[in-house]
Write a structure and sequence with these properties.
Elements (H helix, E strand, L loop, with lengths): L2 H14 L6 H15 L4 E8 L2 E8 L10 E2 L4 H8 L4 E3 L24 E9 L2 E10 L7 H28 L4 H13 L11 H14 L5 E4 L6 H10 L8 E5 L8 H6 E2 L11 E2 L1 H4 L4 E5 L6 H13 L1 E3 L6 E3 L3 E6 L3 H6 L5 H7 L2 E4 L9 H17 L3 E4 L1 H9 L5 H18 L7 E4 L1 H4 L33 H19 L4 H8 L3 H11 L3
Parallel strand pairs: 7-14, 7-15, 8-11, 11-14, 16-17
Antiparallel strand pairs: 1-2, 1-6, 2-3, 4-5, 5-6, 9-10, 12-13
Length: 524
């Protein structure tokens, strides 16, 4: 590789450093340039988060990779790359397992990665993450490629440094809190967090960022299983109260006779069994956040007392005349229509209006398109780690089944399905495989005809398909999925006069992934 070729590849990326563009687009251009420069089948950019590496951009890997969390103590190749002082290539006979075995997008079956190299990325002298390159053919990379990667790695570090500084400027007021959160994440097992790439998810994330720093009461609404508690945790974590406690109460699980005691506390002798003074949830959350889940289940009498606490910050323990003052930010959640509950007389109107200062709706999983694959990747990695497997992946039919299902139970149903399916698939393999592949049969989801209601939200903006044009008796689920994909892509390209970049945005795909999909489907 000549210096002029390398320079021609790097100049556009250097120019990008001075331009304002979304992080995702900046990272996409980085990986797109890398794949054009070096002969690889897949690349990934991973950011260090505590004791794990999180993918922030991928090219050539299956979509659910974005939902995975690669713990350093479970992935020695990634740990070695992070600790290296420059580009590192692993020998073909390396005994270290490759984290991407079975995750290459263009390959079906259990073909392993044969050539692997990468380099660490640093920001201000500190490890930020790693850049990885993988090839399916052995001996694909040479010493010349290693030299090119060293130069590219410096520019990649400059890119992630620019992104980090732009983010720091935008969030300067919360800088110390974010650093404390990173330290806590390193010291404790990682908590679950909201993940997604869809437009609906990004709107939700922007609203969380908008209201989190305020003191407004937030009413989180949405169907059962969408992750309302995760939204409450995100609101607390991004607020000025993050260093103080977040106390959660499931109102539906509290007996009517104990609701007041749980929320406001009691004094000794207040009722039978009250053998000592006890603080309630409001006092435990003083200075922090109180999350009332299923708030619509609270009795009317308790609603009136809660209203007083929310308005004045004053409460009385059960059996006491003494006033206690608390400073609590309230987040409530419900899967009910509270306005209808008010009309039915089961909820006080003044309590409802005090709760819904800032309503925040969490979209159901069926409206989040390909986020189902991102969430599935997260649960697959959890099960892989828990069961001690080398890898767990979804084949193409399994991905299509996940995308075509309506998910009445939302993310919670997906979590249970993945856990159940991994165990079922594992039980059929004796001896235990190093790489476990889940099929559509393992998932056991009903086959949904590809109608408008079953079309993933990620491609819902594409032109509507005439059902009569779909195969009436496909040879397989894969054939039906290919036919649907082909028609959706043709429609999107026609709508945008053949502009692949615009079609990719409509379809919710990266431009490079759309190009590969077009080649596989025989679209010019």
């Amino acid at each position: 590789m000549t210096h002029s070729v390398l320079l021609q590849s790097l100049v556009p990326l250097m120019a990008d450093l001075s331009r304002d563009m979304p992080e995702r687009e900046r990272f996409r251009r980085l990986l797109d340039t890398l794949r054009g420069l070096l002969p690889c089948d897949a690349t990934a950019l991973l950011r260090l988060d505590g004791d794990a590496l999180l993918p922030v951009a991928i090219d050539g890997l299956v979509p659910d990779t974005l939902g995975r969390r690669f713990r350093l103590d479970e992935h020695p190749r990634l740990a070695a790359l992070l600790a290296a002082d420059g580009p590192l290539r692993f020998p073909a006979d390396s005994p270290l397992p490759d984290p991407y075995d079975g995750l290459i997008d263009a390959v079906t079956g259990e073909l392993d990665v044969h050539d692997c190299m990468g380099c660490p990325l640093h920001v201000d002298g500190e490890p930020w993450g790693v850049l990885t390159l993988d090839a399916l053919a052995p001996d694909r990379f040479t010493s010349e490629h290693m030299a090119a990667l060293r130069a590219f790695g410096e520019l990649a570090s400059a890119t992630v440094a620019a992104v980090a500084r732009l983010r720091a400027l935008a969030r300067q007021a919360r800088e110390e809190h974010l650093r404390a959160e990173a330290y806590r994440a390193a010291a404790h097992p990682p908590a679950r967090q909201l993940t997604g790439q869809s437009a609906a998810f990004k709107r939700l994330s922007r609203e969380i960022d908008l209201v989190a720093g305020s003191e407004l009461t937030v009413l989180v609404t949405g169907e059962t299983g969408v992750g309302k508690e995760l939204v409450a945790q995100a609101l607390h974590a991004r607020s000025a109260r993050a260093a103080r406690p977040l106390i959660s109460v499931n109102c539906a699980a509290l007996p009517d006779t104990l609701v007041e005691s749980e929320l406001f506390g009691h004094v000794r002798g207040a009722f039978t069994g009250a053998s000592r003074d006890r603080q309630g949830k409001f006092e435990l959350a003083d200075g922090g956040t109180l999350f009332l889940d299923e708030v619509g289940e609270l009795p009317l009498a308790v609603q009136a007392k809660l209203l007083r606490v929310l308005q004045s910050g004053q409460l009385q323990r059960v059996g006491s005349d003494r006033e206690h003052r608390v400073d609590v930010r309230l987040i409530a959640a419900t899967n009910r229509d509270l306005a209808a509950e008010v009309r039915a007389g089961r909820l006080r109107a003044d309590f409802y209006h005090r709760l819904s200062v800032y309503p925040l709706h969490v979209p159901p999983l069926r409206e989040r398109g390909r986020d189902v694959l991102v969430a599935a990747g997260f649960f697959l990695e959890e099960n892989r780690s828990r069961l001690g497997l080398g890898g767990v992946r979804l084949d193409a039919d399994a991905q299509a089944a996940l995308l075509g299902y309506a998910w009445p139970g939302n993310v919670r149903e997906l979590e249970h399905l993945i856990g159940r399916s991994v165990l079922k698939a594992l039980g059929r393999h004796v001896p235990r495989p190093r790489l476990l592949t889940l099929t559509a049969d393992d998932l056991g989801l009903p086959v949904v005809a590809p109608t408008t209601s079953a079309t993933p939200a990620a491609v819902s903006d594409a032109p509507a398909m005439d059902e009569a044009r779909l195969p009436t008796a496909p040879a397989s689920l894969r054939a039906a999925v290919d036919a649907l994909q082909r028609r959706l892509i043709e429609g999107a390209l026609a709508q945008h006069d053949g502009n692949r970049a615009a079609a990719a945005r409509v379809l919710g795909l990266d431009r490079a992934n759309l190009a590969r999909l077009c080649r596989r489907l025989g679209l010019g």
